[in-house]
Write a structure and sequence with these properties.
Blueprint lengths: L2 E6 L2 H11 L5 H7 L6 E5 L4 H9 L5 E6 L8 E13 L1 H8 L6 E13 L1 H9 L14 E2 L2 H11 L2 H9 L7
Parallel strand pairs: 1-3
Antiparallel strand pairs: 1-6, 2-5, 3-4, 4-5
Helix pairs in contact: 2-4, 5-7
């Protein structure tokens, strides 16, 4: 299992969030793409060997955290989580999903739900396992170091319980 940090915060990505991440793929887009309606998806460009190599390392069961703009113009944060269910490299599917064939490294997602984490909160969650780790937004989609991920899984039993612990409000005793 991997945990991927995925930047999705420029203007093009922002438009794509609404098409296939914030809600399921529409019936029309799904039909054009030849996929089941109701799925969620994301894609990356095959613009470098590095992107293709990262995509090839993605597996069903991997978690993704998506760093996006706020719908109301607030600060960029990690606003979505999802688990990879399947992946394909296909320019025609990308065109159907996002009106742009360049996002051909397509991965479909299960359990897509909103989260709300600032980069500093995520970094604080990593601090127990590695200090000052990812205290800024990701520059490209990036897998978390396996040692850090193993620590999270050992301590919390999985990524989802760890994320839940990061989003709990702090309670002060007084």
């Amino acid at each position: 299992m991997n945990l991927w940090l995925v930047p999705a915060s420029d203007d093009v990505a922002d438009a794509n969030v609404a098409k296939t991440l914030a809600g399921p793929i529409s019936q029309e887009r799904a039909q054009r793409a030849g996929v089941a309606a109701g799925l969620h998806a994301w894609g990356a460009r095959a613009s470098s060997d590095m992107n293709v190599n990262k995509f090839n390392k993605m597996r069903p069961g991997d978690w993704c955290l998506f760093y996006t703009k706020a719908p109301n113009g607030g600060p960029k944060r990690y606003r979505w989580k999802g688990m990879i269910s399947e992946k394909i490299q296909d320019r025609k599917v990308a065109e159907a999903l996002w009106d742009d064939p360049s996002f051909e490294l397509v991965y479909f997602l299960d359990d897509v739900t909103p989260i709300d984490l600032a980069p500093e909160q995520l970094s604080a969650g990593f601090a127990r396992f590695r200090k000052n780790y990812f205290n800024e937004a990701p520059k490209g989609f990036t897998a978390i170091d396996p040692e850090v991920l193993n620590g999270i899984v050992e301590q919390y039993g999985g990524v989802d319980p760890w994320l839940t612990s990061l989003q709990r409000p702090l309670h002060f005793l007084g």
